[in-house]
Batch of 3 targets.
Target 1
Amino acid sequence: MDLTQPSQENVEYMIEAIKNKLKMASAAAMQASAFSVDKYEDIFDVYEVAMGSDRLSISQVEALVSELGRLRQK
């Protein structure tokens, strides 16, 4: 998958990967379709941070979840 190209499919892939990495208990509440390709660069940044670490601290998980909440379409 070429994540260098902004597309809704790539957004959905990254959101699902982030949810899996964070093992979010409320993952069902965060639908990948709630994120727009307009926020692609920001979502990609969150994706890189989440995937770039073998282990995430609780504070890192909270920060990433908070950022995803900010990026969701209202």
Target 2
Amino acid sequence: MMDRYLEPHQARRHEPTQYESLLGDAIERAYAAGTHDLAGLVAYLNRTGPGPQDGEVWTEEIYKAQIAKLAEE
């Protein structure tokens, strides 16, 4: 049996949706490009996508709410 602390997806409750994968990839690209603050991340997502699930543009508040919602799922 694998030690649960070595399981890379130990907190995952389900496979990521296509949207979750796209958003995660975009966040990783933003960090790789040197963006390390929320305002910069929101600007990056607005330039590159994906957009928020409700179809609006990203704001810091929408980003925080979207990430909190995804964490609950």
Target 3
Amino acid sequence: MSAYDEFAKEKQEIDALLDQGYTVTGMLETLDGAKVKFDGGEPGSVELLLLTADARKYVTTLVFAGLQKAQ
């Protein structure tokens, strides 16, 4: 699988969770990737492990965009 395909898969998972009403409530960077916690959906909370740097940058950009809207 190419690097873009891996990123596209992770981006799709992020977007699907956000479309279901989840919000990002926590992030933890590890050597294995970034663990992103989503809350607010039907089953409660979901944790997603992002392995690609582009997906980590994407979710971080979404968090900062949300913070700017809140101000």
